[in-house]
Amino acid sequence: MKMNKQCLPCLVNQVVKMASMTGCLDQDELFHQFFASMSQVDFTKTNPEIIGEVFDMVKAYIHHDDPYYQLRRDYNQMFLKQLNQLDNQIHSFEEAVKYAIVGNVIDFSPIHQNVQKDMMTYFQNMDQLSLTINHVERLKEDLMNASSLVYLGDNCGEICLDLLLIKRIKAMNPQLKIYFVTRGKPVVNDSILEDAYEVGMDQYATIISNGDGSLGTILSCVSQEFLDVYHQADLIIAKGQANFESLSEEDKNIYFLLMVKCDVISRYIGVKQKSFVCLSQKMR
Question: What is the pTM of this model?
């Protein structure tokens, strides 16, 4: 998906949030630089790619390569402490998929006391939660017949719910070669290699980065190592809106797992905002 004009207010809001969360002292000057760069932005790019470029600008301005480091650690530790409890609550493959999608509710915002409470509310009401688009059975069938899977991760914290799903995928098909993919460098609170190892993803999958700092998976920017794995995979599981925006026009066997968080994606997919979807690219 190319940049949509309705993404512009969201992009500005994200920069304001980043300036606040990274402790930028001279925010006015940062905003001046941001708007100057936006005056020459390439609107043929995707929103995740542009956000990645903006975040690089923010990091350079505040002289910090990983300003969300503590935020990622806090989210990961929050969910790792509850991992066994959450694991015991999952009784089917479809439930594991729903838990992983609920993890996509996490977005970059300051850690506060209500984050855990809000997530627990979802988990306690999983029986009432339904998928607006439910291609889980087809996903399960494809996984059983596949020899290789690429799982594109998204946010910190959320990665712990990905772990529980991947654990079940591995149990279903022990011969399946699974690659778990992180971002190539810090970009807001998205997971990087360090996060994947921290939560123990290497128990079930080979961990690689995509070699890029965009918010999603921009195939023109990723590493050759990632491209080789991506093109050879029998199927892809892509978490989150940014991966959907990046790969929605790809002719691959991709399953998108996400919560629909904005009107642009809502209209593009054809579901209401806050819908939870397991969407097969082949069935769109």
Answer: 0.92
